[in-house]
Amino acid sequence: MSASINSVIKEMGNDMDHMVFEVGVALMLIAIVAVLANRFKQSIIPFLIILGMLVGPHLEFLNFGIVDFTFAHSQEIIHFLGRIGILFLLFYLGIEFSVQKLIRSGRSIVVGGSIYVILNFILGLGYGLVTGFPMYEALIVAGMMSVSSTAIVAKVIVDLKRTVNPETELILGIILFDDLFLAVFLSIMSGVLLGDTSSIGSLILSVLISMAYMLAFFVIARKGPKILNKLLNISSNEIFIIVVFAVLFFVAGFSETLHVAEAIGALLLGLALSETEHSKRIEHLVVPYRDFFGAIFFFSFGLSIDPSSLLEASWLALGAVLITIVSNYVAGLVSGKQAGLSVKSSTNIGLTIMARGEFTIVVASLGVSAGLNPILQPLSALYVLIMAVIGPVFAKNSKLVFSGLRKLGIGKNEKEASPRKREKPRMPAG
User: Fold this and answer.
1) Which of 47, 176, 180, 393 has the most neighbouring CB atoms within 10 Å?
2) Distance (Å, rounded) from C-alpha 255 to C-alpha 409?
3) Residue 127 neighbours by CB under 8 Å, 6+ apart
4) Cα separation of 195 and 66, whole Å?
């Protein structure tokens, strides 16, 4: 009997050793790819997704014994660490977002953001339905195609030295509005997909619970800063981050009991804390965790994709890319025009906000976790990979696009509207 128990314990120990080593191998691969991406001055997101697809359980020949690139023993723990990455990504987004900032941003940003979101969402929904997806899958496709990558867009603006351009304020405002849309969309879809949908009444109740839950955090953000400031008035950074992370994981876990995605709980908590005097301190302390666990998330997402499924999703991804290019450019032109900007600046808007990345993957992950069509995973991966690469390229070559428009007589004699004096816009982190 004792011999049998010892055997089991020994086997568990060996598995644990393998798991720790495999996680170490995965982290080394992630680190190498991150260094290479930085060397080439590219976003690491597509690199990590590709890395995950190049290894993993779908390629059994990559098992070399002690070095198992299929990550057979560690796949579950890697995916769990990836889930933590989603929490930190959405929590940080909430911290960065501020309802007060949106209110102060002005009419042009609200109008421009609305144009951008509505146009992309409608075209995305139509594309999903036309290509044969059921309504729920089509809604996920629409969400995927409506959210730009805050991290990539911010990097593009900085790299191209456009932080003081007349259109940059509007670009950042549209991103802010897009983040708000993401919060609302994920909250509603969490209620629809994760709640009891056996009847219309149950479906409506699930959506109402999700919206009420979201509204509660908005109320806390507006009315609760004084109390939160006192509760978080902790001098020790060590204890401070323990308290914040404890609340983060508790809220995320509690959210799931209400059939609201754990990531939404993290985002809403971030929103609530964004209005406190401790928001900058939280941002500073969370960044390393966001970057570390976020990298694991994109790698784990790649691991879950069977490379053979990419071919099936390729034509869907290409169609989505073409629609996104057109819709983003049109939205940029219209938004810039209503804000009094020139065709040149409006062109920059449409081409700069084109990139897709982290939040598109989050939207797709929600759909897959709810049991929707698994093709959403390879579709989102290909879509993000293409848009994350060509988005910055379009932004960099916006002068060529504008030159083409001038040859067609568009914006030929137009002068830039004199922008009002403004402070250098604050760049989103990432």
Assistant:
1) 47
2) 54
3) 141, 142, 145, 319, 320, 323
4) 43
Q: Which helix (H) or strand (E) holds 162?
A: none
Is 124:364 a contact under the CB 8 Å cutoff?
no
Q: What is the DSSP letter of 307?
A: G
CA quadruple 363, 91, 395, 107: dihedral sign:
positive
Give residue 395's pLDDT: 87
Q: What are phi and psi of 177, to 5 degrees?
A: -65, -40
- Summary count for the chain: helices (H), strands (E): 18, 2
* pLDDT tens readout for residues 351-403: 989 988 888 999 999 999 889 999 999 999 999 999 988 888 888 888 887 77
* Cβ proximity of 359 and 178 under 8 Å: no
Work out whether the CA dihedral 331, 335, 337, 343 comes out positive or negative.
Answer: negative
Under 8 Å between Cβ of 107 and 282: no
DSSP 213-252: HHHHHHHHHHH-HHHHHHHT--S-HHHHHHHHHHHHHHHH
At the topology level, CATH places domain 76-407 in Na+/H+ antiporter like fold (1.20.1530)
Which residues contact residue 260 at a Cβ distance below 8 angstroms, ignoring those fewer than 6 apart? 187, 190, 191, 194, 209, 210, 213
Query: Are 301 and 361 a contacting pair, CB within 8 Å?
Result: yes
**What interhelical angle do 75-96 and 262-274 show, nearest 10?**
30
Block residue for tokens 């450019």: 329
What predicted TM-score, i.e. pTM, was given to this entire model? 0.78
pLDDT at 136 over 80: yes
State how far the Cα of 328 lies from the Cα of 191, in Å rounded to an integer: 29
Kindly give the residue spans of alpha helices, DSSP state H, lying in 106-199: 107-130, 135-146, 150-159, 168-194
Query: What are the domain boundaries of the chain?
Result: 76-407
What's the chain's average pLDDT? 83
Residue 219 pairs in a beta bridge with none
Contact between residue 367 and residue 168 where contact means Cβ atoms under 8 Å apart: no
